[in-house]
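Lab channel / #folding
Pinned by the channel admin:
"Please post every new chain as: sequence first, then the structure tokens as a reply. Keep commentary short and put observations after the output so the thread stays searchable."

First post following the new format, from NK:
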Amino acid sequence: MDIQIPDEFRKACRNLGQGLEVTTADELVQYALIGIDHDDARSIKAFLDDLLNGDYSADQLKEFWWSTPADIVLYDGEGVRTFLTMIRDALDKPPYVTAPPE
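Reply from TO:
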């Protein structure tokens, strides 16, 4: 499977190294987004929108995840889909999305 991974998403994946002390998936999402600015967020969101549009099976998403620089192991493709959806949803909220000026 040949998915071009943008540098911004690779940056987020590199935050998911060994030794993280997390107890929830939400905390894992927070770690992934450390150091992600507005421009990074736009790029990652667009990438995840395409990746999660329904064109890829759970097995393809699992294969994709294993090709990222993340050290966090996700064995199940549906788990990958859920985790990536959580990241995408987090990018739809502040501080990545700000209210339009009035």
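NK: Residues 74 and 80 are 6 Å apart (CA to CA).
TO: also worth noting, The mean pLDDT is 92.
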